[in-house]
Amino acid sequence: MRYIVTINNKNYEVEVERGQANIIKTTEVAPAVTPAPSAAISAPVPQPSPAPAAAVASVNGEPIKAPMPGLILNCKVNPGSKVKRGDVLFILEAMKMENEIVAPIDGTVVQILAAKGSSVSTGEILAVIQ
């Protein structure tokens, strides 16, 4: 996984894998612009979470859940695809980082419940593997 860490006005893009961290690149942080005192502070508007699909109730197999809220950038499998543990199933963008959602087990993808471009919430079922 890749992370961006800001220390002393520098962004460090760090890739962490199996207990090892490598710095990919560093960039200077632009000085923060302080808003004018008369500017209204707007709170982020929470996105309504989509209702889970009706098919979720009939899940048989290993559900693949979203580990965090985000946007599905890519779906790398189709229903009926055979996958092995560790194969990338989805690319999920969260906090401006791309995260790979991998298969936890060997099996066959029987359902895809999240489409490319859809927003997902934490714990939402993305696919089912049998």
Automatic annotation (TrEMBL):
Quote the Gene3D superfamilies the UniProt record gives.
2.40.50.100
- Keywords assigned by UniProt? Biotin
- Asked if the record carries the keyword Lipoprotein, the reply is no
The answer to keyword rRNA-binding applying to this record is: no
Which SUPFAM superfamilies does this entry report, sorted A to Z? Answer: Single hybrid motif
Cite the InterPro entries for this sequence.
Answer: Biotin_BS, Biotin_Carboxyl_Carrier/Decarb, Biotin_lipoyl, Single_hybrid_motif
- Name the chain's protein: Biotin/lipoyl-binding protein
What's the source species for this entry?
Ruminiclostridium herbifermentans
